[in-house]
Amino acid sequence: LRKGCGAMNRELLHSLKEDKHSEYLLEQTIKDAQQGRMSMPEQVGSLDIDNIVLARRFSREQGVKSNGEKKIRAVDDMSANHVNASAQATGKNKNDGIDALVRAAVLMGVAMKRAPAFWKADIDSAFRRIPIRTRDKWASWVAFLHKGTAYAAQHQALMFGSLGSVHGWDSVGALLCHLGQRLLHLGLFRY
Fold first, then answer.
1. What integer pLDDT is reported at residue 161 of this predicted model?
2. What is the pTM for the complete model shown?
3. 6, 70, 113, 180: which could form a disulfide with 188 (CB 3.0–4.6 Å)?
């Protein structure tokens, strides 16, 4: 991945087009930097692009929020820069099946002599809470145009668009589920 990253970065920068939500991309990058998830965006000209890997950052509209505003997500294309192809899964992701949930509900209902209650927890910005290993940060840069200027920022935490993020979160989710089941004796499942 390191070989030829300078030429790949130059090609990416030459092909950058201003995203229609470039203001959002800049604001989101600054917000992530303030939360310690990214570095502050800087102009690409100040970077040594021969020793890092840049990914294109773009936006995706994902419906409408309850207040009527568009829901927008920043996405980093870690496939086009070959970072995803370089990632190696250390195991197979595992989710629980509906059969396990039904069996547990039946057993709990019999044991408690009443229908069990269910709840769902969704961890906000789950990927963004897991730090990237220091030795891998050189391949975690993103670039985008804002008002005609190319900006870049380095991820400090896993990002949306990376295969490694999926496997990283799966490991953390498995640990949280295991701790909840073994230490707190909760009937936890992962989907």
1. 65
2. 0.78
3. 180
